[in-house]
Write a structure and sequence with these properties.
Layout (H helix, E strand, L loop, with lengths): L6 E4 L5 H8 L3 E4 L6 H10 L5 E3 L8 H5 L6 E3 L10 H6 L3 E3 L6 H16 L2 H9 L19 E5 L3 H12 L3 E5 L10 E3 L2 H7 L2 E4 L13 H7 L4 E4 L8 H9 L5 E4 L11 H4 L4 E3 L8 H20 L14
Parallel strand pairs: 1-2, 1-3, 3-4, 4-5, 6-7, 6-9, 7-8, 9-10, 10-11, 11-12
Helix pairs in contact: 1-12, 5-7, 8-9
Amino acid sequence: MPHSKPHILFMAEPKREILDALGAHYTLHVMPMQKGPERDALIEEAAPLAQVLIPISILAPSTEQVRMMTKLEHLAYLGAGYQSMDLALFREMGVTGSYVPAVNAAAVAEYTLMLTLACVRRLFPAEKFIRDGRWGPEFGPPMTPEFRGMKVGIVGFGEIGRRVAKLCDAFGACVAYHKPTAASDVSYQYYPELAPMARDVDVLIVACPGGSATKHMINADVLAALGPTGYLVNIARGSVVDNDALIPALKNGIIAGAALDVIEGEPDKVPADYLALDNVVLTPHRAGVTVPVVRAQAEGALKNLAAHFAGEPLPHPIPDLARD
């Protein structure tokens, strides 16, 4: 590694564990979360120095900002969802890439079950019932279904989807899944098409990659197929669900409810309509953010970056950015 520390541009302030781990080896340029002219000016100042870019999906740099990074060598993604980045642009610039796979799969699966149960059992309206002073004058809020015995359809069946399936199994739910090709090592019901699965299930859990291939995969037709007793849970990427289809579906009883950890337009363009609905659970993209996950991401990033600057094979290269 050169005597002068390589420069890394963070598109948002990471957790302290990551800053401490990387700061010992690299010169860090950390951007604030708040969008606006001040942030753009800081990016413009740091861009010509950046040899490594560490983005996050909700604050990805614009094409113009990336092209300012004339010394950029490497895109280091701290998670597995690198598909949300403009990989064609980085490939055009000759940039290599790495990611940290699967370290948050258990955390995301656990959070997914929490969201699902909160949605189906209407946890937050029940809590509000008490906070509003209604318990006593009234017996209780309306009854809910049980998750046990429901049929759950999982959209995407990677590491997270598989873990979600096992947890649903443990709760007594029946599992099905949709992906481009069937998995040979599981006995869950496979659906090659999404709409038929949506028609057959009670809960539709979205756990597929983001990117152009899955943009608005959950649309008005899929929600109509899910039906008035069905629930939607999204822990994948906000872009997979069409807000313009989901909001009227929630308002008009086309589906029973939804739980969203990710929302298209997050964080600064969350539709106000969601906030007024009591049949949707909202959380701020936190499913995979835990103390063990952040530590593992820091360790994975250090290994990937050390290999890059040593000219060694990357432990986890982004395939689309691999050298030919």
